[in-house]
From TrEMBL:
Keywords recorded for this protein, A-Z: DNA-binding, Transcription, Transcription regulation
PROSITE patterns: HTH_LUXR_2
The HTH luxR-type domain, residue ranges: 147-212
Source species: Henriciella pelagia
PANTHER family: DNA-BINDING TRANSCRIPTIONAL ACTIVATOR DEVR_DOSR (PTHR44688)
Protein name: HTH luxR-type domain-containing protein
Amino acid sequence: MYRCISLHPAPILDHVGKPYAKTLFKWFDPKLHYWNDRTFAPPRSGFIQASRICAEPFLFDGTKLKSWRPNQALDAFNANADYDAFGVASAIIRPCYIPFGVIGTLVWATNETVADIDAVFSTHAGEMHPLSLHFLSRYRENAAHAKLPEIVELTRREIQCPKWAALGKTDSEIAEIVGISVPTVRFHLTNSGHKMGVVGRAHAVRVATNPGYVGRSAV
């Protein structure tokens, strides 16, 4: 099987900075430089869309996505999704959730129909899980262009503001609840993001409300 690796938002690079997608895990169509196309994931790639709602391995048999058991999330996805398979006829997809809010997806895919894709899935999907975790985790640790995130300590306000934002509160509502000004709310949201090495309110809220921060006292 051909293999495609996708790690959003940045492509996986080798030791000289070239994308693995270009040098090692080439796609069927050499004209499709999907690692340079920021719209490839998730709007146009069904496999990556589905990885956001299904954390277990699943397969594509050319017509639909399915897993080792009845899966209502995938059933709903198959019934409503409109996406381009980009020439894939058969595939095994392994979602991989790794630290600091990153969702990776490893896809073993081919442009040829694999008649026994269900049997291949049953035999190999289990072993793909630790392989994918090992590969993506080690890559993030050892990539020369990446610096390991530091363990950060958020202040009381830097915990409170993202937690209220995660509950859907606006900056004005947070300001009233916490008893500070709106600019100060925005300052704490921005500052918490800087400390965690993320960009943007949505990413800061998502990371700050992951386990490790949510359970801390913010009253």
